[in-house]
Amino acid sequence: MALIALAADKGAPGVTTVATALGAVWPRAVLLAECDPAGGDLVYRLPGIDGGVLNPAKGLLSLGATARRGLHPEQIWEHTQKLVGGLDVLVGLTSGEQAAGLTWLWGPLGKAMAAMPDADVLADCGRLGAHPQMNELLSEASIVLLLARANLDHVAHLRERISAVARALTERNRVTPAQIGVVVIADPRQYRGSIDEVRRIVTASAESTRVPVSVLGGIAHDPKGAEMLRGQWGGRLDRSLLIRTARELAGRLAGRLAAQAQEQARQAQAVQRTGPRVPPPPAPQFDPPAGVNA
Ligand SMILES: Nc1ncnc2c1ncn2[C@@H]1O[C@H](COP(=O)(O)OP(=O)(O)OP(=O)(O)O)[C@@H](O)[C@H]1O
Ligand SMILES: [Mg+2]
Predict the structure, then answer these.
(1) What total number of domains does the chain contain?
(2) Which of 129, 162, 237, 248 lies in the 20 to 30 Å Cα band around 135?
(3) In this structure, is residue 239 part of a structural domain?
(4) Is there a domain that residue 267 lies in?
(5) Is 8 touching ligand 1 by the criterion CB < 6 Å?
(6) Whose CA is nearest to atom 16 of ligand 1?
(7) β-bridge pairing 88-90 and 30-34
């Protein structure tokens, strides 16, 4: 189905938290894959479905050991585990050092995850910059989601990161470059205002750089919800602002993926009929999210 890559520039805006929250409420079959070269966190944060600790040796590390001989989408399931609540996860590396020997993996892994027939993949790619090979994975994604908190330094770094990612995707000759989307981690008291402000800055810079990027929405800054997501998932978590905003974003992303798939099918049909001369349609526009404004 589709690969959705989540990443950030500087700081720790909450990529792992957002990836986990989206996975918990994703409206289609989904796998959460910890691809952060700096190492994964889920093993330390959440129990497995049986209440025990997740096995840190079964995941990206074990997949990497077998993938040297080639990597097929079906192979990935042999290395996944289930979190409490039932979400399938590919557990990440246990330390950043392991990534040094796995730089070759990101491209084939991206291809395999994007080609999984039975699930979307939410890939937590951590902070970008230190591992240029991660661009190989990003260029396989249907959507690259860049996360930032709504403050000046995060947004300034975000603009630079958008340009760098767009360059990397273009260099890799994507026929239609993966749409780059921004998600703002915003204070619920100024939720819409913060998202709109980031949208204004990102749009202005996108117009001058001609990079296809849109602000896709927000996730509430919700320390209680984030804390609950590190423990047992329960009813109160479901009603948290974090999960409510994640549900809204997940619905919006799934809608965008369905529109992309429809458009690809339309283009494939047009190519069959007329040959490859079909102009690309304008990118779909999305309204700011509703519901959590103060
Ligand atoms: N939406 C949120 N609201 C409140 N706190 C959050 C939110 N998202 C994350 N946090 C908190 O911020 C800290 C960092 O979150 P997280 O590990 O998800 O960030 P990250 O971007 O993945 O960081 P790293 O690059 O270190 O992997 C955690 O303590 C987490 O509980
Ligand atoms: Mg993380």
Answers:
(1) 1
(2) 248
(3) yes
(4) yes
(5) yes
(6) 14
(7) parallel
Q: How many CB atoms lie within 10 A of CB 261?
A: 13
pTM of the model: 0.90
Per-residue pLDDT tens digits for 44-73: 999 999 999 999 999 999 999 999 888 999
Cβ within 8 Å of residue 260, ≥6 positions away: 2, 142, 179
Tell me the pairing of strands 81-82 and 179-186: unpaired
291 domain residue, yes or no: no
Distance of CA 233 to the CA centre of its chain: 21
Give the domain CATH number at 150: 3.40.50.300
Quick: pLDDT tens for 135-165.
999 999 999 999 999 998 888 899 889 988 9
Cβ of 15 less than 6 Å from ligand 1: yes
- 292 within domain boundaries: no
- Over the Cα atoms of the chain, what is R_g? 18
Nearest CA to 212 among 176, 173, 266? 176
- 246: helix, coil or strand? helix
